[in-house]
User: Which sequence fits this backbone?
């Protein structure tokens, strides 16, 4: 619920340029980091295609993103926002030609893109998650599975937020290990071993308090929540604060790994364009939950995109 305030809310626009997906949010920003959405959009544009292997952003991928950003620039201009910002994550961080991409975006779409580190990505993601949690949640461990990286974020009241970023995401995992369609058992096992090792290393210096709430955000986890409910269309109200149990995740993973990419098309709840990467996402989520002995995960439809706006508005 939006708190009452005497001053008119400010309007901000934020863009998250991810490895797989680009997201836009225009919202009114209220005190205490609360947002009221005015316009949102997301596109699966695959900016990070091939970056894990070549360390270069492909010309066609950059062109797809720039075309979308030009479109979004016109949308943003129609809202007379107080400020607008764009951030880029794993794919742009890793690319040798990132300056070429940044120059292209500024020249063609008028955005000065900020490349944020994995740790800063985690901090802003936590701002977004915290803005939409149910009452009473204190100690929180958040998981953000992206296209090129995955972030673990431990947030406890009165203590500095701890964040660890690992270079495993759904696009990177597919390109590096899941070459068959569907993946072979040996490919899946190799992927599990990699995720397990990196997760254990990331969490080793992050002591988890007893009873910590485990929350997941971003496209993989929200897609799995939509699939678990067999939603014919994406419904944020039914996905946000939905609970996925480890048994649900194992069953979803089994269902996805038993099908080819073409056979996954049209599965209830699966967003078009995620057919090839959703199995990798299920592997990551299941392996992380089993490594951390988590029996369930609370799904957040809010994350980096919202945190970018709260940060822009001066929220901490």
Assistant:
């Amino acid at each position: 619920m939006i708190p009452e305030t005497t001053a008119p809310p400010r309007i901000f626009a934020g863009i998250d340029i991810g490895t797989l997906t680009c997201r836009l949010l225009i919202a009114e920003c209220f005190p205490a980091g609360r947002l009221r959405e005015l316009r949102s959009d997301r596109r699966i544009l695959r900016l990070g295609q091939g970056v894990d292997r070549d360390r270069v952003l492909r010309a066609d991928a950059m062109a797809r993103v720039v075309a979308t950003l030009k479109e979004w620039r016109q949308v943003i201009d129609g809202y007379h926002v107080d400020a607008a910002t764009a951030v880029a994550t794993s794919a742009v961080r890793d690319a040798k030609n990132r300056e070429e991409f940044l120059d292209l975006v500024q020249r063609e779409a008028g955005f000065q893109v900020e490349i944020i580190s994995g740790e800063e990505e985690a901090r802003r993601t936590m701002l977004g998650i915290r803005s939409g949690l149910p009452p009473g949640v204190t100690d929180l461990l958040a998981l953000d599975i992206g296209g090129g990286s995955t972030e673990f974020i431990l947030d406890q009241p009165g203590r500095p937020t701890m964040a660890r970023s690992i270079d495993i995401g759904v696009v990177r995992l597919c390109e590096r290990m899941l070459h068959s369609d569907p993946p072979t058992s040996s490919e899946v096992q190799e992927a599990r071993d990699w995720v397990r090792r990196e997760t254990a290393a990331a969490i080793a210096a992050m002591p988890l308090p007893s009873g910590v709430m485990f929350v997941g955000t971003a496209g993989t986890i929200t897609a799995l929540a939509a699939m678990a409910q067999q939603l014919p269309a994406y419904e944020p109200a039914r996905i946000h604060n939905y609970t996925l149990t480890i048994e649900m995740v194992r069953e979803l993973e089994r269902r996805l790994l038993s099908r080819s990419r073409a056979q996954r098309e049209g599965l209830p709840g699966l967003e078009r364009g995620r057919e090839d990467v959703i199995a990798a996402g299920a592997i990551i989520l299941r392996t992380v939950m089993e490594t951390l002995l988590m029996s369930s995960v609370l799904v957040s439809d809010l994350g980096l995109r919202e945190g970018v706006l709260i940060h822009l508005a001066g929220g901490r």
